[in-house]
């Protein structure tokens, strides 16, 4: 059978995740654990995959009504099918970083000339940002800077950085937290400022699906529960960690790692700093940047309209629909929780 | 000793030439201790290399650390869940792959037109990297176990198919003539002659298959899965818990070896005439 | 299959009378069709070989003429031996009659239908005994029974009789690799006999047997033949055996394989041990020896 | 037609029984058109399914699109570079894997003590998912071609090893007795008897190996590489250029098939006695 | 290897004189060691078999006694035939002497050393001709030459002689699957002869050959034997062949395999066609037949 055409209704809602269940999806883990989805009356089935490409393909094919996909992949998908719509992002900030060892004399992307830059994965989400950064610094990929995929966080990549096989490393924030967790490696972030706005994973659906009120209601409910989870986590990281470690115990073999991971995830969610902006909200300008970056790196050859994809009031309306719950009550709930 | 005395040994002596160079049976332990010894020596050297700092600990943890991780993992529910998932994928994929390969291989080997028409397609399919077709599999077989089972099945399919076909090719010609003279149908010829006489080869294919099925399942989990030992290895590696990752690999080896020896045992029981053909 | 009924070779239609006719006939026909008294339409009952040739393509691109222009008419119930030097095409001829090899030219009709493999009413015993190591001796003998779908219980009884006949009773449950060369040949013989075929094709069935066993089996075979009237084509290198068993002995020469002579044997039937070294037998033997020697 | 007339056909007719059920030779085309026909029908059905909207284009593009992409790709330097890289990895890995497997398989099959001591270790190594060891490989063999070559070599190693060993097991006993009676050394017995008589099996292993080497190289590229067809597929997939991705897969199939047929051709020439054993 | 020199079996040391002694000796010794005139220390020169037994473990857990308590002394240069019903252990005995099977009890000394496979000075011709399909007929014959590392050029000349002797000249370059059963056996014979071994072990070498070819090869073999003085152990089912070729005929009976009689053949040497059906030969044959028949 197909991925399920769970277009809402009694069958519940099928939503794809671009990555396995992990601390990365902390708000979702908490919403699930605390029963927020049931509170919202949504019956949501998360399908875990291993890459945003899977999600966008299935979306375009119409096999699923919605899914979370990395912003670059989502934007590329939109350039192929302008029926797609982005509603919110988790986290709403750039998750990809370019870092160098603390003691390196590289200060900026410009200094990478003649050096080797390790990336997590060829064709991975960090590549457009790397490409755009090099372009902006006037460097040519391969000619001026050697790009070497060395894998995401793990022994091989850590060793390659420590041994100096690569001079810098581009990956997602969990990669960086892992590599620095045990103190053997200290890093310095050299990601150009202008890319911070590029969002992480975004909830993508189709214009058609949004027309269907039942589906839209389900999506709103899901988003509300998700946002409540984000608020909960920001309010009580300890309880959030406990919950996460109950759901994904294999990520808590090393509690230092888990704690850092949770902390970074909460930090990027932006909820703690600013309760007025709805969780997951992304500015039009951020999307503009995303599309520019992708166009520069050659992943997008057409000239899609960022406004149609994520602007035009759709996302605004969606945000106001889900960011209407009692935030204070959720915070209170979080404070009194010990996670068990 | 001089040659002359060597030639005049007492008549009660027995020559000790062994049959076809095979060693005499020395009980089950004779088969167990040599590999155990080799493994122990290997582990000792590894441990020493780690202690002496010859091996980078980030990459290869000392066996003692792996052992500790392994033991502590045996308590964890998620470990057993992952094991269950991966083994289910492997065994299901293995069974499906072997049965399909057997059926299709037999058909191709039996009917020349089928071989001419479909063999290139089978080879083409085998050549196509399954990893690249993952999106297809996902669409057709969903996100759960099924797509991993399919991956495992497709990767263990071809070695069995090939050995089934070669097995049919190497059947004794005189025996075929005999069966034809008896008016055996293709099916009877297959069942009573071709199948038994190609069993040693088919089992070689099947033994290949069980190892490849496990590899296929793990690769599929690496490429996209949320559960299973592949995922566990990845996430432990991601946490730089290298010893933990190795512990899962050790577990994988153990389970894989168990599956392999089961197949090998069945082989030795079924093909009892092997050394006498 | 519209093949003939198994009774096609039953004693009633047997022309054995030719062999047992009192006046000794010693007509020697050189490389010619055996003209029979019966009109051609009746040939459907026996085996008719007309202008049969077999040319093998060799691996080096050449050709080997294994059989050239063979004409032969064998009556139902007749026992015919084929004698000739190694490589003269005896096995090839038997394979063609059994339908196991295609001829290059000519026709072979067996009981009225063109030669084809897998006739229910015939059995061939190949020159090398092919036994399946995954079957016990008894199960090897029962193989044709399984394939023809005959009743296993009665066949097993028959197989045990044959095991006794071939002195292999105690080996019924043994594995084939535990047998000596001659034992294997006897198992192969028992397998050929187990289905009681109307046409029996045997390629040197007794070559690996000692003289005494051979004699005993010769006598048994003669008895069985006289009881059951099977049409039997029998390749052998042993002239006394050929004479003792046969109604006619076909002598062949090699390269190309041709029939040089057909000797009618004038030993009376039923034949027993007393005919084995009888003066008549020895006389016949020397006739055969003469016929062959002429071409060597 | 009645049976009676069927029995009275003119004596010039020839029976058309074929030797051992093999069809008569009908020129090289008889081997080419059936698979071509099957492929054409398959492509047509696929195209129709796409046109009819039964299959979504973003998951499976119509063959016509793939063809267009394929043709336009042939002009691109990056395509040929990727091809070169992947083929180099595949062939190098294949050769290394086959030679090692042959040597080790022969040693294990020849010396019982070696088999007892090392076979479990070889199986254990085969069972270990190479993907999980990728970090090790990357560290030891670098991030360039070498680690992919090693991956390809290790994955095509086992099927050859297994078939080499089974081949040695299935050598005719009488022939072994003959060689022993001649006082052949193990090596002579191997070279003059065991090797030739197990060649059909070894070639089956080698044919497996060439397909697995390609799969291994692609998987290795998927896990971490900067060049090669696996990388190309990934980056085309990232751009959702599905037709382009399929075009690379098609190219992979074609190159893989070429390698496969080369091996098959060598097999058919070397083992000329196959159908007569 | 401190084995005996190839001349160990040369005519000079041959006791053939025993066979050619004018007074016919017909000493019948039942199942006993052949006592020779030579002192025991000289037995190192020939083949000494003492209390040899062979028990096979059968697959069903039982045992089969293939040979029991065999004692035999064979002089260098002697030609000894082994006769006996199928399954009496002739092949087993030959395998043990060739060192290809371990005995269960007893000793076998060949030219002074315990039986062992791969002696340069001996060759065995197995009961089933094992030919390698990847080698041409000629290359099959040359196989022992390659393995013993002998000079290939002179060996090729010898192989061609043997091809002529076995009437296979035109088949030198053919593939083995293009040969008939008898041809394969002849190739196998040529292979055994190509290295000029001092000890020749032959297991039913002529069973698949016609009487004429067999006779011709018998005569050739006798001639070669008389020229070269090889020690020859020869298994056959053909009594006249055994008598014609041998200095002694060892008669065996089965289950358990035992020597029941050893017949000294009193035909003069050199032997030729004239001895084939001579009165003396026939007399000897009936002696052998008698000896065997007693136990059947
Ligand atoms: N591998 C074996 N396992 C068990 N029993 C065996 C084995 N090989 C031979 N035998 C038995 O040993 C006995 C002697 O066998 P052998 O082959 O020596 O006989 P032979 O005299 O050569 O007979 P033939 O004339 O039929 O070739 C037979 O009863 C046979 O069943
Ligand atoms: N497959 C083949 N390819 C080429 N030539 C063949 C083939 N089979 C047999 N021959 C040739 O055909 C001739 C007849 O062979 P066949 O086996 O019929 O002889 P035969 O009379 O049975 O001999 P034997 O008494 O030795 O068994 C021989 O010269 C042989 O070389
Ligand atoms: Mg023949
Ligand atoms: Mg024997």
UniProtKB/TrEMBL annotation, chains B, D:
Positions in coiled-coil regions: none
UniProt keyword Disulfide bond present: no
Location within or outside the cell: Cell membrane
GO cellular component: plasma membrane
Name of the protein this chain belongs to: ABC transporter permease
Bilayer-crossing regions: 32-54, 82-105, 117-143, 149-171, 201-223, 243-263
One of the Pfam families matching this protein, by short name: BPD_transp_1
Region (Disordered): 1-25
Originating organism: Aeromicrobium piscarium
Topology versus the membrane: Multi-pass membrane protein
Domain ABC transmembrane type-1: 79-267
Domain of life: Bacteria
UniProtKB/TrEMBL annotation, chains C, E:
Stretches assigned to the ABC transporter domain: 47-279
Molecular function as annotated in GO: ATP binding; ATP hydrolysis activity
Source organism per UniProt: Aeromicrobium piscarium
InterPro entries, per database record: AAA+_ATPase, ABC_transporter-like_ATP-bd, ABC_transporter-like_CS, ABC_transporter_ATP-bind, P-loop_NTPase
Keyword check for ATP-binding: yes
Stretch list, region Disordered: 1-42
Biased composition (Low complexity): 1-24
Keywords from the named record: ATP-binding, Nucleotide-binding, Transport
Pfam families: ABC_tran (PF00005)
Name of the protein in its database record: ABC transporter ATP-binding protein
């Amino acid at each position: 059978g197909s991925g399920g055409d769970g277009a809402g209704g009694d069958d519940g809602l099928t939503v794809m995740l671009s990555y396995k269940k992990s601390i990365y999806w902390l708000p979702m883990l908490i919403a699930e654990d605390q029963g927020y989805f049931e509170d919202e009356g949504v019956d949501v089935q998360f399908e875990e995959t291993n890459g945003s490409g899977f999600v966008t393909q299935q979306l375009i094919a119409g096999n699923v009504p919605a899914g979370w996909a990395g912003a670059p992949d989502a934007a590329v998908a939109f350039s192929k099918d302008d029926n797609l719509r982005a509603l919110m992002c988790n986290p709403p900030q750039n998750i990809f970083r370019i870092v160098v060892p603390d003691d390196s004399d590289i200060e900026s992307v410009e200094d990478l000339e003649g050096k080797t830059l390790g990336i997590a994965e060829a064709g991975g989400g960090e590549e457009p940002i790397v490409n755009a950064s090099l372009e902006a610094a006037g460097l040519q990929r391969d000619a001026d800077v050697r790009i070497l995929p060395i894998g995401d966080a793990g022994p091989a990549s850590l060793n390659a950085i420590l041994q100096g096989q690569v001079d810098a490393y581009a990956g997602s924030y969990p990669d960086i937290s892992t590599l620095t967790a045990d103190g053997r490696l200290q890093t310095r972030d050299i990601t150009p400022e202008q890319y911070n706005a590029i969002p992480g994973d975004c909830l993508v659906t189709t214009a058609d699906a949004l027309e269907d009120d039942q589906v839209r209601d389900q999506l709103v409910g899901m988003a509300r529960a998700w946002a409540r989870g984000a608020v909960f986590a920001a309010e009580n990281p300890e309880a959030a960690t406990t919950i996460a470690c109950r759901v994904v115990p294999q990520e808590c073999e090393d509690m230092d790692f888990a704690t850092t991971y949770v902390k970074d995830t909460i930090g990027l969610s932006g909820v703690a700093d600013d309760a007025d902006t709805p969780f997951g909200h992304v500015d039009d300008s951020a999307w503009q940047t995303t599309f520019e970056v992708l166009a520069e790196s050659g992943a997008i050859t057409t000239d899609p309209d960022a406004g149609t994809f994520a602007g035009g009031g759709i996302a605004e309306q969606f945000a106001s629909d889900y960011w209407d719950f009692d935030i204070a009550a959720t915070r209170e709930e979080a404070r009194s929780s010990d996670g068990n | 000793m001089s040659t002359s005395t060597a030639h005049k040994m007492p008549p009660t002596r027995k020559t000790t030439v062994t049959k076809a160079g095979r060693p005499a049976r020395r009980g089950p332990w004779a088969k167990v201790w040599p590999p155990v010894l080799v493994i122990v020596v290997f582990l000792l050297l590894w441990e020493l290399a780690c202690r002496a700092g010859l091996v980078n600990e980030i990459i290869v943890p000392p066996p003692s650390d792996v052992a500790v991780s392994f033991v502590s993992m045996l308590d964890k529910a998620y470990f057993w869940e992952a094991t269950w998932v991966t083994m289910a994928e492997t065994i299901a994929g293995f069974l499906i792959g072997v049965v399909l390969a057997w059926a299709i291989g037999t058909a191709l080997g039996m009917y020349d037109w089928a071989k001419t028409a479909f063999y290139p397609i089978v080879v083409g399919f085998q050549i196509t990297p399954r990893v690249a077709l993952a999106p297809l599999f996902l669409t057709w077989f969903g996100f759960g176990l099924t797509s991993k089972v399919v991956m495992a099945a497709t990767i263990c399919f071809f070695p069995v198919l090939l050995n089934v076909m070669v097995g049919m090719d190497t059947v004794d010609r005189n025996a075929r003539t005999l069966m034809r003279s008896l008016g055996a149908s293709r099916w009877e010829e297959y069942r009573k002659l071709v199948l038994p006489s190609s069993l040693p080869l088919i089992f070689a294919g099947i033994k290949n298959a069980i190892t490849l099925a496990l590899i296929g399942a793990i690769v599929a989990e690496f490429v996209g899965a949320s559960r299973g030992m592949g995922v566990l290895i990845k996430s432990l590696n991601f946490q730089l818990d290298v010893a933990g990752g190795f512990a899962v690999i050790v577990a994988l080896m153990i389970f894989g070896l168990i599956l392999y020896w089961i197949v090998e045992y069945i082989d030795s029981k079924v093909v009892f005439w092997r050394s006498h053909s | 299959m519209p093949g003939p009924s198994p009774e096609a070779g039953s004693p009633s239609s047997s022309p054995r009378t030719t062999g047992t006719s009192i006046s000794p006939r010693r007509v020697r026909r050189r490389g010619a069709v055996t003209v029979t008294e019966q009109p051609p339409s009746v040939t459907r009952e026996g085996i008719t070989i007309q202008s049969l040739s077999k040319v093998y393509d060799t691996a080096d691109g050449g050709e080997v003429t294994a059989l050239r222009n063979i004409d032969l008419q064998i009556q139902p119930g007749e026992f015919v031996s084929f004698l000739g030097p190694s490589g003269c095409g005896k096995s090839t001829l038997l394979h063609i009659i059994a339908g196991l090899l295609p001829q290059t030219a000519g026709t072979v009709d067996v009981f009225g239908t063109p030669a084809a493999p897998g006739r229910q009413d015939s059995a061939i015993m190949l020159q090398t005994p092919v036994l399946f190591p995954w079957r016990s001796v008894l199960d090897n003998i029962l193989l044709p029974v399984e394939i023809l779908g005959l009743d296993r219980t009665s066949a097993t009884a028959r197989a045990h009789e044959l095991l006794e006949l071939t002195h292999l009773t105690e080996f019924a449950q043994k594995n084939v690799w535990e047998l000596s060369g001659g034992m294997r040949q006897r198992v192969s013989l028992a397998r050929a006999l187990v289905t009681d075929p109307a046409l029996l094709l045997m390629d040197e069935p007794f070559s690996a047997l000692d003289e005494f066993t051979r004699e005993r089996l010769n006598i048994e075979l003669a008895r069985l033949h006289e009881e059951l009237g099977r049409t039997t084509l029998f390749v052998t290198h042993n002239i006394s055996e050929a004479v003792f068993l046969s109604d006619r002995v076909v002598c062949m020469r090699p390269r190309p394989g041709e029939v040089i002579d057909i000797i009618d044997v004038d030993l009376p039937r039923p034949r027993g041990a007393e005919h084995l070294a009888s003066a008549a037998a020895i006389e016949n033997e020397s006739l055969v020896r003469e016929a062959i020697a002429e071409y060597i």
